Fold this sequence. Notes:
This protein is an alpha/beta fold. It has helices spanning 25-29, 40-43, 48-56, 85-95, 97-101, 120-133, 153-163, 201-205, 215-218, 225-238, 257-268, and strands at residues 2-7, 35-38, 63-67, 105-111, 138-141, 166-171, 191-196, 244-249. Helix 10 (225-238) crosses helix 11.
Amino acid sequence: MIYIGLTGWGDHDSLYTDDVKARDKLSEYSSHFPVVEVDATFYAIQPIRNAKKWVKDTPDTFRFVVKAFQGMTKHQRSDEFFEGYEEMFEAFLASIKPYQDANKLTMVLFQFPPWFDCTRENVQYLRFCKKMMGDIPIALEFRNQTWFHDKYRESTISFMKEYGWIHGIADEPQAGNGSIPIVPVVTHPNLTLVRMHGRNVHGWTKPKNKETNWRDVRYLYNYNQGELLEWKERVLELAKDSKEIIVLFNNNSGGDAANNAKQFQEMLGIEYEGLAPRQLGLF
């Protein structure tokens, strides 16, 4: 089965009428898509009450991909709130229990930063992450090209298969070592994750500064029909080796993610059952 959704639910204006309040957006979102990525968990380990609300706001069949906290993926080099990595992982695991209890946690996504390169130390850290997460399905997305250099590509894929990592396959600008190529390979028989970041090379490489919000330009991209058709073929091939495929569109700097996701759903001829009832407009 192929599940299509978006990263986050707050910024996709085309899905909501003006009268939909922020607290009700997830409920309305779940009338359009069967899965969402929770990205708030990357910026802070969320209070349990948030997860409980989000679980309650969505249908029984709805699915969450929860993004690992930035300290767990070494985006945050040190953390004043935790004594060590074990304590950090334990706090995160406690925060996602409501998703598990409701049987709505599809996976936790570990997206590593551009400076997380293919080294012995980092391979050991990946083993540590897998150990700390136990039986929870976890996806691995790199942002450093060295993992897929000719010298390491097959070893990287074999390692992911051996340790049960779900492959986080990325479509993103090809912008040197801080990006990865498309590697459409299944590493887990049950789940595969595809994240569509767009192909805006200029926005991807634009330095962060105080004057410009980098998120406003980094994911500014609208996939054309030809590009989506390419991904249709890839996803159908991946589905031969993976029971479930999650496709998440993250190209939302210009509000294109929702429309591209719906285009892609139409291309694949998918109609989802069990979505939330759609809000009725005035007419």
